[in-house]
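I'd like us to work through together how a protein chain folds, taking it slowly. To get us started, please write out a protein record for me. Label the sequence line and the structure token line clearly, so we can match residues to local backbone shapes. Once you have written the record down, we can walk along the chain together.
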Amino acid sequence: MTKNFGDAEQRAHDPSAYEQRMDSEKHVQRNPHPDFAKVQASRPDWNADREWNITKTKEPQWKLGQGSNDGGRSLKQNHVEINPYEEGRPAVSNYKLLISGIIPRPIGFLSTRSKDGKSTNLAPFSYTQVMNHDPPIFTVGFAGGYDNAKDTLRNLMDTNECVINIISEHFVEAANNCSINAPHGVSEWALSGLHPAPCTDVKASRVKEAIFSIEGKLLETKEFESRATPGKKTGVLAIIEGIRFWVREDAINEDKNLIDPGVLRPMSRLGGITYGRLTEGIEIPRPDFDE
């Protein structure tokens, strides 16, 4: 007969099984709404009239050494100290804290293809960032280790190729659907309704709907091990070199070095199941000490 353990008992009896349960989607509870459809129906409609706009800064007359622009109010607030490895604190608490505090995060919408070419994969990753421009270097973080790699990481390591697509407003629902827990071999292209377009230097397809896409070659990966549960592999960092860019012609300037945010209209990830729109910006010149 299978014995039922409480959290503390299971952690002591089988740490690996405990951590797997703690990492499950139902336990993470990214969606805080028992009836999301009802909550969604109560909200205002999408405002399609919101155009990209640049405003003044909050304090246009800010002077050197002035400090914050809130009149010192932030100095009156206290902080809570958190030890990420505090006894009894599950790793999922750090995950939820970080994805709600490190925002907005760009989303790498990765397209990959299996080594034999028989299957393709398309999935969003919010642990994505550009790290260098010469050569163009990108990092993407994957949950889990090599042993339980999902399709995207498996394909990336098998072929050393991928395409990083940037998600825009006009296909955010389709892109989000690609995070579905589909069985191995089931392509998210069909589930999302998005369209593949050919690349030049990699065999994986780019997303035709994407305004900006990067053909990439894998340089290296690094696997990480849990501090709380030694031996458990919790993540993989992939370092990717961008070898060719694709930009929709109405979004790029004549010199091919600036993408218009008003056309790109990128979506970002916030905490939980929340996405962010980019509808407003400010400009602040970088200061010159001699001036």
Q: What stands out?
A: The radius of gyration is 22 Å. The longest strand covers residues 233-247. The CA atoms of residues 57 and 285 lie 11 Å apart. The mean pLDDT is 90.
